[in-house]
User: Which sequence fits this backbone?
């Protein structure tokens, strides 16, 4: 079942030079894809590929210049007011830098209660208890609910960001480079958490990333973007195992790899 | 002397309000004249502090103990004036973010010329020819034209090439590269890694390559030092560290890296 449908999404930016010269730049050029219920679709690309602009448009943090966005069969391209609030109760975002996306002056409890207050949701047992439950679900100690973001490590802070996204029980979570800033050992734990949460609740992810190896661990389908367009879209195994486009092949070939011979010997020894 | 750089029992201590904190604790390694040694670790491991100690660029208030010898001569405790003379000449460094290490107000040519003349002297005209040659050597097209451009006129990868040109213009004995490809796109990273390996081979410069990325280290280093919380966890040839890691922490790091070529278990959607 299709949860979200992007149709020819286009974003053009206009800048004016010092002499009033008008320059137009197309950041995203007629991008179309579906997100199915329960799946993880990754959008990968290098800087300037348009992947983050695409993420912002499907999260409705930015309006497209052209194109159409549907969520659960409803046109939300120009959704405002109540319709936008309804969209936000179904679609949440986890950002790259947890510290800049969490209010440093608010306790974790307050951060996790905010989406419920905004949506006017009163869970059974109260919002405080709900916040503690969320902390437990993402592997944080609920006794720390009155601490501030700065009192947590980077990996823990990202867990708070994930918990906040899950507070309204969304159907789609957009992860915009959500594990890119984390150390590799912490990154592995957060990826595992993201997979477990999806397994438990059955929501979908759109996973925006530049790291293809990370994407391989989490996505069923991959869209490869370059210069504002989707150049290739297909099942992860196929896109990575048998890429059809030259650009995808170049991207895959450029990834640094641990000497496979050394890797094999290490695995045999352990 | 076969070893170019010898670091022995290096300790770096900061004084804080809560008392002294050792950010590097007794690290020892050597770099031969024609090899690349990789230092790998997660954030807070002390890998960057180790490189700054070698360069004599630690923040004020940092205390060092142990020994850092370049071609047999002790670097620790040398006056600033002497270290300044060594930097750019015998020792060079490139950083993660070339934009913040280049002066936005001067053309890249002028910055390379100044670096060259500060150590080698000569006329501006001669230095300009050296700068053009250096830019050509790092693979920038049209170096005669690019030499008069400002840093903002270059892409991220080109800027890192400019930094490399500047670092190598005096043909230093040792180049320290601190996360030089971390901010770059993966295709650009591949080009810069190839360039560094080629230049190192041609010039016979020794290199210390600092990164959090084990796959990058695997492709460039002959020996590897693994650091964690200021301590040296493991030190050996790249083959030994990657194929037969002795320490649990190294093994854990290697197991954490997502691999692009692996079969991934099917996920239930």
Assistant:
């Amino acid at each position: 079942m299709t949860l979200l449908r992007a149709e020819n999404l286009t974003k053009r930016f206009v800048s004016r030079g010092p002499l009033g010269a008008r320059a137009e730049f197309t950041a995203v050029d007629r991008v179309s894809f579906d997100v199915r219920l329960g799946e993880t679709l990754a959008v990968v690309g290098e800087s300037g590929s348009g992947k983050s602009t695409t993420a912002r448009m499907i999260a409705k943090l930015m309006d497209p210049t052209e194109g159409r966005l549907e969520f659960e069969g409803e046109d939300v391209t120009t959704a405002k007011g109540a319709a936008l609030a309804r969209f936000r109760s179904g679609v949440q975002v986890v950002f790259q830098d947890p510290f800049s996306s969490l209010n440093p002056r608010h306790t974790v409890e307050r951060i996790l209660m905010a989406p419920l207050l905004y949506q006017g949701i009163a869970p059974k047992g109260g919002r405080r208890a709900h916040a503690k439950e969320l902390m437990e679900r993402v592997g944080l100690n609920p006794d720390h609910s009155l601490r501030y973001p700065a009192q947590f490590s980077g990996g823990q802070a990202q867990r708070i960001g994930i918990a906040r996204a899950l507070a309204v029980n969304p159907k789609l979570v957009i992860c915009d480079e959500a594990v890119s800033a984390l150390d590799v050992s912490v990154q592995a734990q957060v990826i595992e958490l993201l997979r477990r949460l999806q397994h438990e609740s059955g929501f979908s992810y759109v996973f925006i990333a530049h790291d293809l190896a990370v994407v391989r661990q989490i996505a069923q389908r991959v869209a490869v973007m370059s210069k504002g367009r989707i150049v290739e879209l297909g099942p992860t195994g196929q896109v990575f195992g048998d890429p059809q486009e030259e650009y995808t092949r170049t991207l895959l070939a450029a990834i640094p790899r641990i000497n496979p011979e050394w890797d094999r010997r290490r695995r045999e020894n352990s | 002397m076969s070893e170019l750089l010898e670091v022995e029992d290096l300790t770096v201590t900061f004084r804080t309000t809560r008392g002294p904190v050792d950010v590097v604790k007794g690290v020892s390694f050597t770099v031969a004249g024609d090899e690349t040694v990789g230092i790998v670790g997660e954030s807070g491991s002390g890998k960057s502090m180790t490189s700054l100690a070698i360069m004599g660029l630690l923040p004020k208030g940092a205390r060092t103990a142990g020994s850092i010898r370049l071609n047999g001569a002790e670097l620790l405790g040398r006056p600033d004036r002497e270290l300044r003379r060594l930097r750019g000449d015998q020792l060079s460094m490139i950083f993660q973010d070339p934009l913040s290490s280049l002066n936005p107000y001067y053309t890249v040519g002028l910055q390379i010329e100044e670096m060259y003349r500060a150590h080698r002297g000569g006329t501006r005209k001669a230095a300009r020819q050296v700068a053009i040659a250096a830019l050509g050597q790092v693979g920038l097209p049209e170096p005669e034209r690019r030499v008069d451009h400002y840093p903002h006129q270059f892409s991220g990868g080109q800027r890192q090439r400019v930094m490399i040109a500047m670092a190598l213009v005096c043909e230093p004995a040792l180049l320290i590269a601190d996360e030089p490809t971390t901010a770059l796109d993966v295709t650009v990273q591949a080009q810069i890694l190839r360039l560094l390996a080629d230049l190192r081979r041609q010039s016979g410069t020794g290199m210390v390559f600092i990164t959090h990325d084990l796959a990058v280290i695997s492709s460039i280093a002959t020996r590897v030092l693994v650091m964690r919380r200021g301590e040296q966890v493991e030190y050996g040839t790249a083959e030994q560290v990657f194929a037969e890691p002795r320490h649990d922490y190294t093994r854990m790091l290697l197991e954490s890296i997502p691999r692009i070529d692996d079969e991934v278990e099917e996920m239930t959607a």
About this structure: Residues 109 and 191 of chain B are 22 Å apart (CA to CA). Chain B touches chain A at residues 42-43, 156, 185-187, 189-190, 193, 212-216, 218-219, 238-239, 242-245, 251-262, 264, 267-269 (CB under 8 Å). The first strand of chain B starts at residue 3 and ends at 16.
